Fold this sequence. Notes:
The chain is an alpha/beta fold. It has a single domain, classed as 3-Layer(aba) Sandwich (Alkaline Phosphatase, subunit A). The protein contains 11 helices and 18 strands.
Amino acid sequence: MFRINAGKTSPYCDGHSRRSFLQVGMAGLGSLGAADLLRAKEATAAADRRDTSVILIWLDGGPSQHDTYDPKPEAPAEYAGIWQPISTNVPGMDISELFPRQAQLADRFSLLRSMHHNSGGHFHGGHWMLTGHDGLVAGSNDGKYPFFGSIATRVTGSRHPGMPANVGVPYAMSIGLRPGYFGGNYVGRQYDPFDVGSDPNSTAYKVQNLNLAKDMTINRLDDRRSLLQGIDTLRREADQSGMIDAMDRFERQAFELVAGSRARQAFDISTEDPRLRDRYGRNTWGQSTLLARRLVEAGSTFVTCHFGGWDSHWNHEGTMSRHLPRVDMAVSSLFEDLENRGMLDRTLVMVMGEFGRSPKMNNGGNGGPPLSKGTPGRDHWGNVLSVLIGGGGVKGGQVVGSSNRLGEVPQDRPLRPGDLHHTVFKVLGVDPNLNFNNHAGRPIPAIDHGAVISELI
C-alpha cells in the first residue's frame, strides 16, 4: 500500500479539520475489503459508445453566480455585486468583467443559469451535484451514492489501455473529504478517482502512485501477479460475490500503470512547451487544467480539477479578485488548446461548484461571530447556480434557463443535477437506465431524475 499525506487544507465554514490520507493498493498486494465491489452490471450492448472524455473543473466551496456567469447589473447594488458584466462574442451572453478571455470564446461553450437543488449546505450541495442524489443523513457527511464520473468510467473504462479512466488533479476531494463524493461507493472502490496527490505547479511534483514499492521490480511484480491469478483461478467457480473479478480488474489496471510508459509520460507535465504552461497560468489551477488535457489526450475518460477556496462569506471582493482571473486563464486556455489539437469535439468541459452564493451581499458574515469578519460577502445558496458546459459535441453559444431578476431562483427552464448527468452520459455513450446494487443489495438507478438537456444536443 502507498500512503500519501495530503496535509492540511483550509477549513470551510463548518469548522471541520481537513487532514486526510490517500491509500492506493498496487497490483493486488492489498485487500480491497468488500465482497460486492463488482455487483454492478456491465454496460448494456444498447449503450451508444463514443470516444469522448470529460474534464470537470470543480469550484469547491461554491462560486457566486452573480460574479461569474449570471451577472445582474440592473438589480439593486447590494444584489448586483461589485463587477460589471461584459459582452461576449455571443450576443446577449454577458459574463463577469473578470472573464475577458472566456468572453472571446463564448461560442465554444454554453451556460446553464437555472441549475438548482435547493440545499444550502456544503455537504448536501456537493452530494447533489456530484452524485445526483439526496440521501445524506443529518449530522453525517458520508456519501450515500457514487460519483457520476465513477459510474460512467465503470461502464466505459479508459479510452486507451494503460491510462487510469478516472483521475483527480491535484487530488480527488470534495468539501474537504477525500475522495468524498468523488468516490465510487457501492459501484466499487476501484472506481474511485486515481488521486495524483501532488501539485503539478510545484518543482517537487511527482505522481507517487506510479512508483514501485521499495525493492520491488517489474519482474517480481509480474511474478506475484501471475501467482495471485493462479490462486484466484482455483477459487473462481466457488466465488459468488464478484470479489475475485474485482481484484483481478484492480490488479490489472494497477499493473498497467506501473509497468507501462503511457501514463508516466502523460503525467510528466515538464515536457510541455513553457509558453503554453504560462498561458494556462503558473499556479496550481492552471497547471492542473493543463495536466487534465494531457491525460484525456493520452486516454483518460474523466478528469476532475479541484479548485478550492470559494466559501466567500466575507472578503468576497478579495476572494473573487484572486480566483476569477485564474479561472479565466485556465478555462479559456483549455478551450483554445483542445480546439488547436482537434480534441474539442470529443472532450466535454464543465465548470461548476456545489451551489451558488446568496443574491444579496451580507455585511461580513452570515450571522455574526465566528463567521463575521467585517467585510461584505455572499452566503450559501442552493436555490440557483450557474454551470458552464462546452465541447464534447454539445452546442456552444447557448444560454439555457434563467434566474429571476435578483438571481434568487430559476425563472425559466429549471434544471436539476440529474439533467446535467443525463447530458454527460449522453456525451460519453453511457446508458442512464443502468442499475447498480447498493451495499444492501438493492438495485439503484444510475440517474433517478431528469433528462438530457435537449438545447445542447
